[in-house]
Amino acid sequence: MRGLGVSLQVLALAMAMATPAVAQDNSGLRRLATPDDLRGWEAVGRVDIAGGGFCTGALIASDLVLTAAHCVIEPGGVAVDAGRITFRAGLVDGVAVAEVPVLRTVAPTGFGASNPVSLEDLLRDVALLQLAEPVPTTVAAPFVVALPGNGDEVSVVSYAQGREEALSWQRLCHVLGRQDGFIAVDCDVTYGSSGAPVLAQSSYRARIVSIISAGYKEGDGTVAFGMELPALVDDLKARLRAGRHTSEAKVDTGPPKVRRIGIGTGGDDTGARFVKP
User: Fold this and answer.
1) Residue 102 belongs to a domain with what CATH number?
2) Does residue 267 lie in a domain region?
3) How far apart are CA 89 and CA 211, in angstroms?
4) Half-sphere exposure of 27 (CA within 13 A, CB side)
5) Which whole number is the average pLDDT over 84-94?
6) pLDDT for 55
7) 0.90 surpassed by pTM
8) Is residue 268 part of a domain?
9) Which residues on neighbouring strands pair with residue 86, listed in sequence order?
10) pLDDT-based confidence at 141, cuts 50/70/90?
């Protein structure tokens, strides 16, 4: 974990927007440990950074993973070498449905992984990881990115410290407030949940309406922060097409692998930003 705080600017806006998180009646976490549990969530995976812990990410195309920018940008704006990053889709107890090295990363220009996190960085804390090979949609169907609707009920799927070996799904949590592209939720997330998709249910399939960037503990609950995505994601896709990536790896490409891997300890190096203010 990078011990990044939440700026007073972010906290002030959150308190102005939000109702108390501890007042909500959330449904708890469900560990997605079996193939039946995982069905439909295979596109969410662990973003592992060699020597640097992990975050959570989700496929939004067969070769594009959506995650938080601070997972691939070090404080001061230095890019993590893409060759150190691997995406492990649907990882459960050492087995992933697909394990693919990352070829390129792209994050917003000027993102600095500020410490404490500023409102400006939070609102653009989004990155795309281009995989060395696409994950077949028959293995993991990508999610659609959308603007939040009018409802206040969302869900979140994430890896995190203490539950890094399998996805945890919180079926119901709540939007506490949204303003100028900023979103506050009371979802149960912690270290390692950075980049986790915040989802709203549609008539067909859940859509990603935000990702987890930062947060803090409040009593028995959590206030977590994210951002609206479509414009940011469209810009990052355009930058990739134009070859304006942030980091590029030299990797030997091959088909996505399905194999047993070791589980790291996670520890204090998970790339999430959750502190008590």
Assistant:
1) 2.40.10.10
2) no
3) 17
4) 13
5) 97
6) 96
7) no
8) no
9) 48, 101
10) very high
Residue 177 inside a domain? The answer is: yes
Tell me the average pLDDT of the chain: 84
User: Look-up: residue for tokens 């011990």?
Assistant: 3
N-terminal to C-terminal alpha carbon distance within the chain: 16
The answer to the question of residue 160 being in a domain is yes
Return d(Cα 224, Cα 207) in angstroms, integer. Answer: 19
Pick the closest to residue 163 from 140, 193, 186, 185 (CA basis). Answer: 193
The pLDDT value given to residue 22 = 43
Q: What is the pLDDT of residues 163-207, one digit of tens each?
A: 999 999 999 999 988 888 999 999 999 888 999 999 998 767 899
Q: Amino acid identity, residue 194? A: S
DSSP annotation string for the chain: -----B-HHHHHHHHHHPPPGGGS----EEE--SHHHHTT-TTEEEEEETTS-EEEEEEEETTEEEE-GGGTEETTTEEPPGGGEEEEET-BTTB-SEEEEEEEEE--TT----SSBPHHHHHT--EEEEESSPPPTTT-PPPPB----S--EEEEEE--TT-TTS-EEEEEEEEEEEETTEEEE-----TT-TTPEEEE--SSS-EEEEE--EEEEETTEEEEEEE--HHHHHHHHHHHHTT--SEE------SPB--B------TT-S---B---
Q: Is the dihedral of CA 203, 205, 210, 214 positive or negative?
A: positive
pLDDT of residue 212: 95
Q: What length does the chain have?
A: 277
Q: How many CB atoms lie within 10 A of CB 161?
A: 20
The confidence band for 266, taking pLDDT boundaries of 50, 70 and 90, is: very low
What is the span of the domain harbouring residue 78?
A: 8-247
The answer to whether residues 182 and 118 touch, using CB atoms and an 8 Å cutoff, is: no
